[in-house]
Write a structure and sequence with these properties.
single chain, about 260 residues, alpha/beta, TIM Barrel, two-stranded antiparallel ribbon, 11 helices, about 40% helix, about 15% strand, binds ligand LARABZUK
Length: about 260
């Protein structure tokens, strides 16, 4: 069983538990459900392109940083020029929570990506109710048909979609309604990271698709290399979060670009 299989198995249980506690109607009645969302398609072009991620831990790295406050960190990311914020909401494998988005939403005026493993319609209503603007669809967890249906549902709810792919086969999950395509440099089976991976797959994407290089961007050279290869966005988590002061690490990074 791969780590992704384990995550999905646990996620199904988590969704079933959530459904028994909070109805769809309660989600629709919540404070943020009707809010206008921010567009990552816009900010990815108008700002640095960096989607800075708040991530306490991960299956590949264990604990990265569980000492810092989401609000302090992501407010600084916004102030310093991030195009968007990614927040892991998975608890068991990433140490995240819905509250991490809920508690920062009123203070953040750039798009927030709900980073989770989306496999059920219910989660899209959750995403809207917690104040997210964008959702991640991981091709490895979905069929092309589910990807299409979840994209349509996201748009009905006013959410944008970042489709994550890792293999050539997964290019078949792309449909023209997708807002942005992320190419994960990290193989989720063995956690190996290879930037060439995103460069290769990017060349196979339709032209004019907004593309995001995800994972394993560990220095400024990586950023410039991927930018030169035509990427619009750069999803970066660990590089900032591994520092005692992630905001300072972000500031130093962005002052060089
Ligand atoms: O990071 C992991 O170990 C991981 C394992 C299984 C599924 C997803 C995983 N990561 C999620 C991500 O996509 C990354 O957090 C994100 O791309 C940022 O990566 P990095 O800059 O390398 O922290």
């Amino acid at each position: 069983m791969t780590i992704l299989d384990k995550i999905i198995e646990r996620k199904k249980q988590e969704i079933s538990d959530s459904k028994s506690k909070i109805s769809l109607q309660q989600l629709k009645d919540s404070e943020f459900f009707g809010r206008e969302t921010y567009s990552l398609k816009e900010t990815i072009k108008s700002k640095s392109g960096i989607i800075a991620e708040f991530k306490r831990q991960s299956p590949s790295k264990g604990i990265i940083n569980d000492k810092v406050s989401p609000l302090e960190v992501v407010s600084a990311y916004e102030k310093l020029g991030a195009s968007g914020i990614s927040i892991l909401t998975d608890k068991d494998f990433f140490g995240g929570s819905f509250e991490d988005i809920l508690n920062v939403r009123n203070h953040i005026h750039i798009p927030i990506l709900r980073k989770d493993f989306m496999i059920d319609e219910y989660q899209f209503y959750e995403a809207k109710s917690m104040g997210a603007d964008v959702v991640l669809l991981i091709a490895a967890c979905l069929s092309p048909q589910q990807t299409l249906e979840f994209t349509e549902l996201s748009h009905e709810l006013g959410l944008e979609v970042l489709l994550e792919i890792h293999t050539e086969d997964e290019l078949g999950h792309y449909n023209s309604s997708i807002d942005l395509v992320g190419i994960n440099n990290r193989n989720l089976k063995d956690f190996k990271v290879d930037l060439q991976h995103s460069v290769h797959l990017k060349n196979l994407l339709p032209e004019n698709v907004l593309s995001v290089a995800e994972s394993g961007i560990y220095n400024i050279q990586d950023y410039f290399y991927l930018k030169e290869k035509g990427f619009d966005g750069f999803l970066m988590g660990e590089y900032f979060m591994k520092n005692t002061n992630p905001a300072q690490a972000f500031e130093e990074f962005i002052s060089n670009i």
